[in-house]
Design brief:
Layout (H helix, E strand, L loop, with lengths): L4 E2 L1 H6 E11 L3 H8 L3 E2 L4 E4 L5 E4 L2 E2 L16 E4 L2 H10 L5 E10 L5 E10 L2 H22 L1
Antiparallel strand pairs: 1-8, 2-7, 2-9, 3-6, 4-5, 5-7, 8-9
Length: about 150
């Protein structure tokens, strides 16, 4: 079974505005390490380069356990693969102040390709985070009250 790596911190710290699905340009040992589930999206973010390409920075893919001297560096930048129109749309939206591009989840498609869901998001303030927690707790209390 292929793992689904989720960036749970992103949904807590950011307000998601728009989502996109992108492919990843990876090496063989990176794919094998991802299949083992040895990936961290917690500190990662996406940037648009001056040449109009999307790059994931800060994503940690641990070295493959059975790899040799050809293993990949864990924190290298990885290119995202999207259509040109989608990249232009993302770059246009990122011109607004306070918006950023973050990875939400990484998974393998039905065909076996490694994919990443990315989102244009706005950072939440502390009081917004607290309000989200209150809303979640209230919803949980209502569900528990209905069961009784």
């Amino acid at each position: 079974m292929n793992p689904v790596i989720d960036n749970r911190k992103a949904r807590y710290a950011y307000e998601i505005q728009d989502k996109f699905h992108a492919g990843l340009q990876l090496t063989g040992t990176e794919v094998k390490a991802i299949r083992e589930g040895k990936v961290s999206l917690a500190e990662s973010y996406v940037v648009v380069s001056s040449s109009g390409e999307l790059w994931v920075k800060g994503m940690h893919i641990s070295e493959f356990s059975h790899g040799s001297y050809v293993n990949h560096p864990p924190l290298r930048e990885r290119k995202l693969l999207l259509k040109k129109r989608e990249i232009e749309k993302i770059a246009k939206k990122l011109n607004d102040k306070g918006l950023t591009l973050i990875p939400l989840k990484m998974y393998f498609s039905d065909k076996g390709w490694c994919k990443m869901d990315i989102a244009i998001a706005k950072g939440k303030h502390l009081h917004d985070k607290r309000q989200s927690i209150r809303n979640r707790e209230d919803a949980r209390d209502l569900r528990e009250a209905k069961r009784i």
